[in-house]
Structure formats: structure tokens, C-alpha cells
Amino acid sequence: ETTKEHMSFQAEAKQLLKLMIHSLYSNKEIFLRELISNASDAADKLRFEGLTDSALYESDSELKIRVSYNADDRTITIADNGIGMSRQEVIDHIGTIAKSGTREFFNSLTGDQAKDTHLIGQFGVGFYSAFIVADKVTLITRRAGLTVEHGVCWESSGEGEYTLETVEKEMRGTEIILHLRQDEDELLNGHRLRSIIRKYSDHITLPIVMKKEEWSQEDNKNNITDEDETINQASALWTRAKNEITPEQYNEFYKHVGHDFEPPLAYVHARVEGKQEYIQLLYIPSRAPFDMFDREHRHGVKLYVQRVFIMDDAEKLLPNYLRFVRGIIDSNNLPLNVSREILQESKDIETIRAGAVKKVLGLIEELSNSEEEAGKEKFKTFYREFGQVLKEGVGEDYSNRERIAKLLRFISTHNEAADEPAVSLNDYIGRMKAGQEKIYYVTADNLKAARSSPHLEVFRKKDIEVLLLCERVDEWLVTNLAQFEGKSLQSVAKGSLDLGDLEDEVEKQEREKETDEYRDLTERMKSVLDEQVKDVRVTLRLTESPACLVADTHDMSGNLERLLKSAGQ
Ligand code: ADP
Ligand code: MG
């Protein structure tokens, strides 16, 4: 006996669905891509669990995805024999529209449709894209390993509620039936569906099958036969030769592995031979995900061993500062039963990881060296989205420190109007004054504060460039980057500020003279301020401001002190 339960989505769901349907409508056929992508993930999961529990296959080991349609019922069905879902999994994954970050998402909506469409894509609405073309969706599923009577039927019209019912399901896996909206009849067409599948899902590794159709003179229409035919190439895209993969195929594969609706910014595809044999296909997204600074972010690089999916988001495959990279690494050498624990210690993984880091840094370097306008624009986008995270690498990845530092870009006093980081450390060194030995920087809470720092006065007067550092990560950066190409980095707000050879003889004498002249005053100020200061000195640093605070060479900078205080330390 079964009962139908009525349940509700979270409060925001209805609004989210409406917005999504509206903003994705012009590209509505992506619903099929998303549902096929999920079916493929479900097959990957079954293959992986099947490695240790072959009973899960239930003597049906030919994994595939079936697409069919019924013109009379006006339905399209996507069925897979993958891992399926238990009742609880349906509630968690299908009944909960947006996992983490829903609130942030809604706050970031602008009301500008073009912008919001980008956001929707970035947010990931996978399964729900079914509602672009359907006004009712029925999902019937049974998890592998559970018995026939543990099937679950979920149904919703995308209006804020859904029903849940326990049903019998003979075949394990998931079947999704789309009841098409009025006016969507053009989708009830074998040609149309086949062309959508070839366009968006050709890269899917397992066969996507449909029933063959034959022209019938008698009925004057196509008749659906009983014979299956595979629509896609059904081979792992990354194993194909580069010149056999089109840019569109690379892009569609990215959308699948990256769970993204937008094409990637750049990618690198390489086969590595030698002691460790592996293939890597790594992508840099066009946009930072919402959860980039969230410790529980998901979807990193996927690990495969000999074409078998092993795990998602294997954090050992790339260091933390490259956590925005998506894609796959397919190893020929690792054991199939590799676990997260084994990965922790594996020397093989270290080799693969070092190789992957090299490739990604190489890809970013390529963008940064680009002479063409389009490439330059790409690097700018990259830096805007991921520059902050890349900076973490200077502290995290010792062996690639210089290489990463070369890729960093800053705002500096060289261009007083700039608000996007464009100055590399090499640019800076190229503009150093004769006798200048150090790379000067100032740290502050924001760009405006950095620009108006009194510490800059003498540098402006002498036309010496100073880097303006105002991101949170910058304090961490300068603590970890003492030097670049033999030049040490020096805060303008620290120490006696030995300008070295940049201070001329006249200035030196003048400072000594004034120090003597004002000794009474500085001594008196020091005794009045007592514990609050270490020292009071005469300076030539200031040209307009009467006084400024400086930190001792080895003390924390004022900015870092403020940051730590605000973090409650
Ligand atoms: P994503 O694929 O980015 O996780 P989706 O909205 O596409 O987001 O899917 C949500 C979740 O629903 C999936 O992560 C998966 O757990 C579950 N799911 C969706 N489709 C299937 C399916 N065909 N088989 C098994 N689980 C599925
Ligand atoms: Mg999905």
C-alpha cells in the first residue's frame, strides 16, 4: 500500500524556478544536456561503487542512457540504469533546490536579465532546467542495492510543491518523464532530439540510445521501431586525439564536468607518458564559483583510473590555490581501489599533482603573455575572478613561488587612475630608479586609503613607484614573498625607511641637521606619549602631512594589526 506525500520546496524555490525558466528560455534545449549529464554522473557513481560490490549491477551491467518520446502523451523520457536514489536522497537532492548559498544568490541578483542569466548558470540549476520545457516532471528512481519495492516516485509542477510516493521499480536507476508545456511540440521529434544530443552530449562516455525510426509511406510519417541506435560517439572524450575534438566539444564537456552553464575561459589537454602515465584535461572557468572561499566547496577535478570514475573533488590532485580548476585526470597506473586515504600518501599522486600544477601555471602564463586583444581580455578576466586565490599560492607552493609571483598583477602609483591590477613585478623592476634596490609597497584596507597614505609623499616627490596592496590576502602575500628576482619587498610604512642610494647627500645632511635641531621637541613628544610609541623621529618622508605612524622593521604592519584585531585575535 502506498500513500502520496505532499511536500514543499524551500521558500525561494518558486522564485528561482521562475527566474531560471525566464532567463534560460532562449536556449531551452539545454534541459536535455543537463538531464543526460546527471544520468552520466549516476552511471559513474555506480561503476565506482560496483568496484567493491558487483552485486549492485543486478545482472544488468551495460550502462546506458535512453531517450524516448511519446507524441500522443506529449512526453519526453530520459532513463538511466545508474546508481539511482533512495527516498532520502530524492528529498535531499531533488527536493532541495539550492544547497548552500541560496541567500547569497538572491542577494546578488540585479534585475538585469543578461547579468542574472550569467548568475543562474554559475549557480547551477541542473535538474530544474527540466521545467524550462515541462510543466510537470515525474521522476521515478530506485537506488542500486535496494529491492524492487523501494522505488520512489517524485512529481512536481515546479510551483513550490512536490509529491513523493513509494512505488515498485523493476530496473534500478532513474527515469525522468517530462510532460511538455503547451507549444513545445516541436521537441516531440526524433530528428530534433538527435541533433540536440549530438550538439551538447556527444562527449558523454556511455551510449545514449534512442529507438530507430523508419519512414512509412503508408502512414506518411516516421514510425518508431524496436531497434536501438546509439546517438553519440560514446567514447571518453579525453582519450581522443586533440585534433579530433572540436572547441565546441571541449566546451560542452566542460559544462558537464564543471557543472557550469557557461563555456570555460581556457583549457589544457595533455597526455603524459613515462613512469606515471596519465591524461589531463583541465579547465579554467570564466567565473569564480559562489563557494570559492567556502571551505566546503564542491566540484573540483575528477579522478579516473583507466577510464573508470573514482572520485569527485579529489583535493589531493591540485593544491588549494588552484581550487577553481575543473576537469579530469585519468591515470593508467593508480590502483582501481584507490581511496582518499591512499591518495594522501601516494607518491604517484604527488607526481601527477606536480605535473598538473605545471600545466595549469603554463596555461595561465600563456594567457598572461598573449599579444592579442582577446587573449589580454581573457587574462584580465582570469585575474579579476581568480587573482586573489592565486596569491595564496605564493605561500602555499614553495617550489613554484617565483612562477606564481610573476603572474601577479598590482595597482601602483605608476598609474594614479587605474582601478584594475595591471602592473607585474617585472614591470615594476623595469621602471626602478637608478640606485633603487627595493620593491616598495603600501598596504591598506582599500584602494582609496592606500592612495592617500602619507607614507607615499616622499615617493611621489621622488617619482618612485609604490605598489598599492589592499586585498586581505596581500598581507599574507608580503609575509611570504620577501624577495622577487633578488629585490626585496619593502613596506613604505616600516622602519627608518632607508632610501639607500635614493637619498642624496644633501638630503642626508639636512635630515641629520634637523634631527639635531629638533631633538628637544622629539624627546619631549616621546616622554608625553610615553608607552604609546617606541620612538619619535624627524623625517623627510612627508611633504604635506605633519606626522605619520610607522612600524618597526620587524613589527607587524598597522594594516595587519587591524586585520587581526577585526578577526578577534
Ligand atoms: P549537480 O549535477 O550539479 O549536482 P543537479 O541539479 O543537476 O546538480 O542534480 C542534483 C542532484 O540530484 C545530483 O547531484 C544527484 O545527486 C541527483 N540526481 C540528479 N539526477 C540524477 C540521476 N539521474 N540519478 C541519480 N541521481 C541524480
Ligand atoms: Mg547536474
From TrEMBL:
Signal peptide: none annotated. Residues 492-531 form a coiled coil. PROSITE patterns: HSP90. Keywords: ATP-binding, Chaperone, Coiled coil, Cytoplasm, Nucleotide-binding, Stress response. Gene3D superfamilies: 3.30.230.80, 3.40.50.11260, Heat shock protein 90, C-terminal domain, Histidine kinase-like ATPase, C-terminal domain. Residues 27-184 form the Histidine kinase/HSP90-like ATPase domain. GO terms for cellular component: cytoplasm. Pfam families: HATPase_c_3, HSP90. It is found in: Cytoplasm. GO terms for molecular function: ATP binding; ATP hydrolysis activity; ATP-dependent protein folding chaperone; unfolded protein binding. ATP binds at residues 34, 38, 80, 85, 99-101, 122-127, 174, 340. It comes from the Bacteria. Residues 1-340 are annotated as: A. Molecular chaperone. Has ATPase activity. Homodimer. Belongs to the heat shock protein 90 family. This is Chaperone protein HtpG. The gene is htpG.
